Amino acid sequence: MNAYITSSSPLSVYKAYLNQFQRDFTTFLEMRSEEMVYSGRMVLTLMGRNILDDPSYRDCCHMWTLLPDSLRDLVFEGLVSASKVKSFKMPFYDPSEEEVKEIIRKEGSFQINNLEAHGFDIGHSNRDFISLQLHKAKTGQREAGCISFKEV
């Protein structure tokens, strides 16, 4: 009953999400290239992943972990059918830097002037519970203040 890519997802699910992201991002770049002025620049901010070898690794998607639990609760309470939950998928794909670069190169309208990746801690680090509670506000401030950007 996962609504997004997880470590238990088959390779075919990963490939389907990747193919859809490639099509969507390519279309996005094509449309933006028509709007750009000569020598214009574009700054993009994307959520991505740092792990290249395991596309199911969710280093950026902790926000999705509560969704399947909530959907299971709705099924348990009889408010939603299990078949509807099983058919629901989050259309979210977190590309690696290499995947983003490859799509931009293949599309051909833009060149990458600068590409930076920024990590952030959303409270899932190895801190113990008491320490996490004491630093909850700081963790929230770090999360809210974190911006990743890609310039193409």
From TrEMBL:
Q: Which domain of life is it from?
A: Eukaryota
Record keywords: Phosphoprotein included? no
Per its UniProt record, what Pfam families does this chain match? Methyltransf_7
* SUPFAM superfamilies cross-referenced by the UniProt entry: S-adenosyl-L-methionine-dependent methyltransferases
Keywords linked to the UniProt accession: Magnesium, Metal-binding, Methyltransferase, S-adenosyl-L-methionine, Transferase
Q: What is this protein called?
A: Salicylate/benzoate carboxyl methyltransferase-like
Gene that specifies this protein: LOC104715401
